[in-house]
Amino acid sequence: MKYLSQFLTKICLAVAFIILMIGLFANLSSNRFGDETTLLIKIIASLLILVSLLPLIKKSVYPKIEQLGNKRKIQIIFGIFLLIISIQLLTRHFFIPSISRDPFRIRTQAIWLAQGKVEWLDYFKRYPNNVPIAIVLSKALKIGWFFKLSTQTIITSLSLISLDIVAIIAVIMTYLASKKTSIALIISCLLLINPFMYTYNLRVFYSDVPAMLGFGSVMLGLSYLYRRPNARFRWLIGATVLIISVVTQLIKPNFIIIVPAIILWLLITALSADKRSQLNRPLIICSASLILLVSLTMPASKIISQQANFEPDSNQQFPTTHWIAMGLNPDTIGTYSQADCDAMDKETTKSGHEKLAMRTIKERLKNHGLIGMVKQISLKYHILLDMGHLNHKYVDGFSDAPAWYQKHAGQYQIANNLLISTLFCLIFSLALLGIKQLWQMEKSFLSLLPVLIIDGLLTFHALFWEVNDRYGEAVIIPILYLSAIGLKSYLAPEKHTFIAQHDNRPARKRLWLPLYFVGLAMLCYLPLTMKVPTTLTVVGQFSNWGARYGNLGTMIAANQKLTQTFTTRTDYQIFQLAILPHQQTGELILEVNGKVLVTKEITAENTKKLITIKQKLPAGNYRLIWHNKSSQENCVYLQNGADYPLSQESILELKDKQYFVFKFANRKS
């Protein structure tokens, strides 16, 4: 049995090593904006930083940190978190994101539910998996309103608090992994300078941060019960883990992989025949309860949805096999495919959906073949672990942003991409060192759980499901846990470990320092010289449900004008206004600083969803006017904010807060 336990452990570690190697390569090659030359420069710069930074930390930084007392180190960690929170608050104050697509629809629905409205957007009939998160958010809004908080404050606070709890759990887990406060302090510094803490996860309330929180809470709670089975608060900790796990499963269905991960972890630990690794009673009870409750949450979510007056429509909902077929799509490499959805829309019944999906799966499996499937799976791992694009998710510009950002948005986005991908190269490199260290350890059962979570979640998506780089960030805490093990093995190797054999070489600080600054200079050079190869949306109001999901327009009276004001802080080259083709007719008038800049007549022959104006659009105070010049009512594409401000000002002539859907952008450089 002992040998079986060791064999299973090695298999899990080997799979994790391969996955993390792909993750390292994915972040080295992450290059959203550049061409092949800039990619090569970025790879060289990242490698120079990687090979020089760790020796510099080992020879110069780490010894000085070690000289500090534990109390002082903890104080510094607290100071780092205060600084993180301060930056987050400033970011949220000055950068007001225009949230689009799924998170916007969920936010709108949650506000309606909290207000007592029982009408559901058509979107949820297609994607009923997002019904629970809308219900959970509506409950949070009710609590916040009870304390007289605004809707915007509540949702912003939820994003900030949940993200910071994830960071706190990550730092605690890195301490438990390394048993050294110095390692936890270094990981805290990595979080401080990582855009991961200030972009997508802070701006958008969605299911990704709850997923990180769920996996992290399970790791922390079970680690605590494993180490201290007789602790005074063991039952409270167990109950907290169970509650968080159930809520996470409601919000994020793929959290279900925690069930096989825990079962396999318990099995390998039990087979070890090691008295020091024997499972204790509180741990077994908590694990068994978690497995049972998470498994029961899936049918329970249907009951909760029904209580909120949601009625699923099997003819609109896509079957599970549709997402499996989408994951096999070679054209999109398993990511979301609008073409697949359009093909599914042509089938109007549940049986039709299922037959089409099964036929597509068989065709794609046949076309892929064995080699094609290996390539598809490898590329899907690559997408899941490419963290360089996270800061762009679900944000179509900002309703307001500082002048310096509006002027240099392209360079800012490039710098963000370079920084986050380079930092994750470092994190993945350390995690690989951690896997290597665990491979050489005879007993690593506590560290096996994060490995199983990484293997389980990412392999599930790579083999069976549609992928997105958002899905990969759910395992950030397990990856940081392994990084802490790797960092400790490098900075403070124990006797007879694989690092110790190479630790007697003389310090080469004079060599590493120039290499580090060359790599850093190359990374700083890229944002200053790279040209953004796409049209980049900077400011505007692009939050909308979409005509497909119920936004059919607002009727306005004959000869009525609608006016919305806003301010831009730099010059732009492109303005776009969303309209309803064939239905919306009238005149668009765009004024700046009291002068008419553009007038454009829109007729029923128009087939485009966006009116595009390409000319110099100077900074200033704008008035966007839509004039219904006809002698009868006409339909206008507007968006209701549902008690949440979507732009600097709402339309002046309407009592309920409604907004045009528009954006300012710059052409590719």
UniProtKB/TrEMBL annotation:
Keyword tags: Membrane, Transmembrane, Transmembrane helix
Task: Keyword check for Membrane, yes or no.
Answer: yes
Ranges annotated as spanning the membrane: 7-26, 38-56, 76-95, 154-176, 183-200, 206-226, 233-251, 257-273, 285-304, 414-433, 445-465, 471-491, 511-528
What is the name of the protein in this document? Membrane protein
